[in-house]
Amino acid sequence: MNASSSTTLLRGKRILIAKPGLDGHDVGAKVIALALRDAGADVIYTGLRKSPGFIARAAVDEDVDAVGLSILSGSHNDLVAETMEALRDLNAMEIPLFVGGTIPAHDQEALRAKGVRGVFTSDMLLEDVVASIARSLS
Question: Which CATH code fits 3-137?
Answer without folding.
Answer: 3.40.50.280
